[in-house]
Every structure is written in C-alpha cells, then in structure tokens.
C-alpha cells in the first residue's frame, strides 16, 4: 500500500511525493458513546490503515486525491472552511483545523484498507494520517494528542458529525498488542497489553455491511439525550454520576432519557472492570462484560440493529469468549474475542445465519492490535 500511495501520487500530480505517512482504523473493545460524556473508552488500533503520500507546495493550495475516484479536490488553506467536497472534507478539514501552523499548501494522495461505514473509523484514519504528516512537514510541533483533537475538530466543525475524541486518540496513540484506556475527561491514557495471541485468541470483526453515518440523526439524538440527562441531574456531564445515582435519575428523567443515561453510566463501570479483568487474565469476566455492554446498547441506548444482534448471537454460539457491536452503531460491525482455531467456523456460521435471515452477506476477518500513526517512508 505504501508503493500504491506513491504510484497514485505520481499519477495524480506528475511528480514525486516527499514521504508517506499512515494511521490505523480502530476497533473499540468496550466503552461506547461514553467519550462525549467525558467517560472511559478502551479501543485499539487495527492492522488496517490509511496511507497518505504527500508533498508540500509553494502556494497555499491543498489538493487531495485517492483511489476512491479520479477526482482531485482542491481548496486554498484559509479561515474559510472547505465545504461540499465529499470525502475530501476529512483531510481538508484537518488542514483547516491546523491552518494556523500552515506554512505551505500540499498535494496528497490517499490509499486505505479500512472498510468505510463499518464502524472501524476510516475517517479517523484519514484525519490522523494527514494530521501527523502535516505536523511534520510544517514543523508544527504538535503532540499526538493535540493532532487527535484537531482531527476531531475537523470532523465536528467541517464534516458536521458531533463525534467524541475516542477514534482519533486511538489512531494516534495505539501500540501493537495493546489497547488504550482513555479517560475522556482528562485525556489521560494508559496502554494495556492485550496478550491475545499468547492465549491463542483473536479479535474477529463481523462487518454487517450495513453502512452508517454519524452526521445523521441517530448519533446526534443520543448525544442530546445524554446532555439533557446531565442537565436535569445538575451535573456537567454523565461522567459525574455513578450507579448509585440511578435511583434518583429514574425519578427525575423520562423513560427514554433515563435508559440512555443508564447505558452511559453502567458502561463506564464496565470499561474499568474490563481493564481489570484483562490485567488479571480473567477472560471469562471480560467476555461477560462485552455481552453486558452489547445488551445495554441494544436495550437501553437502542443503537444496535438485528444484523448486529445476530452476529453477536452467532459468535457466542460458536464459542466466542465475548462479543459486542463496536463503534457508533446503527450499522457497522460487531467484534468477538474468539480462539483463532474457531475463526473459520465463525465466518461460516455467520454467513449461513445471515443468508437464512435474508441479510446482506457479512464480511468476517480478524484484526490485530497495531501501532498508531507513523511515518512509513
Ligand atoms: C463514533 C464516534 C466516537 C464515539 C463512538 C461511539 O465512532 O466517532 O467518538 O462516540 O462512535 O462510542
């Protein structure tokens, strides 16, 4: 893919790129819709990445192209946000967010094997690859966490998706064989070794291929319900509440808002418990927590879909340790922690059950916890 990025650059722009940078998509082990509530999340970088071949220009023009289409999108770096440029809003949005550091324009060509719309953060992979590259090319001196925040800013203010900080932080700070515990209130992070392969385990992704977008209504309305709950409970965010507050919350909130808040509050507890379970090697407990997380997303937060529930059920029926949908929901993928030797059986069973229910054929593959943003050449 490194060579593909360089070749694509040459073809699009007719000269050699300065270098190639890359950043991974992410899978979230546990902690969903907790990030924008200042809570805890526990994602890891996956071995599917976005590569960007890039060179600086003498003017302030930014051009971006990719293997998606022949089209080259162009925008001049300024205070005026780029608009209506399709996928190019992600990288150009990052350039906009970083505009104070922009000493030059640039040409960029993207190649990616992070599936789009699968809940594996193809968008964060684009944002972080180009943010990391520009930071170096412009000698901006930003930390990895600052680049993550600017990626989120691009997504919130240019793309218009009201997302949290999990995906970009994971893509910037991930390491091989580890997951990143992120405290989204303080932005403190802790790398926790996963050691799955030593135990003969893998994380399987079951991509339902039902596509989702977070600029649509579902994600936003969940976020609004959480904000409403926090305001009625008179706290700055749901992070400030614990399970002991649920009795009072149930009296003050309407049923839907209460269930939305209950998901977030209990999910925060589950994230910390999952980290403990991993540290003590208690995989059975980890599995229970993943399943409880899925049930909470399905019943309280109501962001699962029948395809995701089916994927989780099939995974458990073939002997997974635990399974849950991952990412924002309303489509995308579920993950399962499962013995490597059962991966094929999982794929077969999943495809069979999806066919029987008349769903689109799912895409099943293992992901390896991998390194965050890096310079490749
Ligand atoms: C999307 C968002 C994240 C997070 C998850 C849900 O991936 O980009 O910020 O809110 O959904 O956990």
TrEMBL record:
Query: Which Pfam families does the UniProt record give?
Result: GalKase_gal_bdg, GHMP_kinases_C, GHMP_kinases_N
For this protein, the record's InterPro entries field holds: Galactokinase, Galactokinase_CS, GalKase_N, GHMP_kinase_C_dom, GHMP_kinase_C_sf, GHMP_kinase_N_dom, GHMP_knse_ATP-bd_CS, Mevalonate/galactokinase
GO MF terms here are:
ATP binding; galactokinase activity; metal ion binding
One cellular component term (GO) for this entry is: cytosol
Q: Does the keyword Membrane apply?
A: no
**Keywords in alphabetical order:** ATP-binding, Carbohydrate metabolism, Cytoplasm, Kinase, Magnesium, Metal-binding, Nucleotide-binding, Transferase
List, in alphabetical order, the GO biological process terms annotated in this UniProt record: galactose metabolic process
- Does the entry feature the keyword Ribonucleoprotein, yes or no? no
Domain named GHMP kinase C-terminal: residues: 274-355
Q: Where does the Galactokinase N-terminal domain lie?
A: 9-55
Boundaries of every GHMP kinase N-terminal domain copy = 91-173
Which PROSITE patterns would you find in this protein's record?
GALACTOKINASE, GHMP_KINASES_ATP
Q: Which family does it belong to?
A: Belongs to the GHMP kinase family. GalK subfamily.
NCBIfam families, from UniProt? Answer: gal_kin
Name assigned to this protein: Unannotated protein
């Amino acid at each position: 893919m490194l060579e593909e990025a360089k070749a694509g650059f040459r073809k699009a722009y007719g000269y050699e790129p300065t270098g190639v940078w890359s950043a991974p998509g992410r899978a979230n082990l546990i902690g969903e819709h907790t990030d924008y509530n200042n809570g805890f999340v526990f994602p890891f970088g996956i071995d599917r990445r976005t590569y960007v071949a890039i060179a600086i220009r003498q003017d302030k023009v930014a051009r971006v192209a990719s293997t998606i289409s022949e089209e080259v999108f162009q925008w001049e770096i300024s205070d005026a946000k780029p608009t209506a440029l399709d996928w190019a809003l992600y990288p150009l949005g990052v350039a906009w967010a970083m505009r104070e550091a922009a000493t030059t324009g640039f040409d960029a060509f993207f190649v990616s094997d992070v599936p789009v719309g699968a809940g594996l953060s193809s968008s964060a992979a684009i944002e972080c690859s180009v943010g990391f590259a520009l930071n170096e090319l412009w000698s901006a001196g930003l930390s990895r966490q600052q680049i993550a925040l600017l990626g989120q800013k691009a997504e919130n203010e240019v793309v218009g998706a009201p997302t949290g900080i999990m995906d970009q932080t994971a893509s910037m700070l991930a390491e091989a064989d580890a997951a990143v515990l992120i405290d989204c209130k303080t932005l403190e992070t802790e790398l926790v070794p996963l050691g799955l392969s030593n135990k003969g385990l893998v994380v399987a992704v079951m991509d339902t291929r039902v596509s989702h977008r977070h600029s649509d209504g579902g994600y936003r309305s969940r976020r609004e319900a959480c904000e409403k709950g926090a305001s009625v409970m008179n706290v700055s965010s749901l992070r400030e509440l614990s399970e002991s507050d649920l009795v009072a919350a149930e009296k003050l909130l309407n049923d839907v808002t209460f269930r939305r808040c209950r998901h977030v509050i209990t999910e925060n507890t589950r994230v910390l418990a999952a980290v403990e379970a991993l540290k003590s090697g208690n995989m059975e407990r980890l599995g229970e927590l993943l399943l409880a997380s899925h049930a909470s997303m399905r019943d309280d937060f109501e962001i699962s879909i029948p395809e995701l529930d089916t994927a989780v059920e099939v995974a458990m029926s073939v002997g997974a340790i635990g399974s849950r949908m991952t990412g924002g929901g309303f489509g995308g993928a579920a993950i399962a922690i499962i013995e490597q030797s059962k991966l094929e059986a999982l794929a077969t069973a999943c495809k069979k059950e999806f066919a029987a229910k008349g769903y689109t054929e799912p895409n099943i593959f293992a992901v390896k916890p991998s390194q965050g943003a890096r310079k490749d050449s």
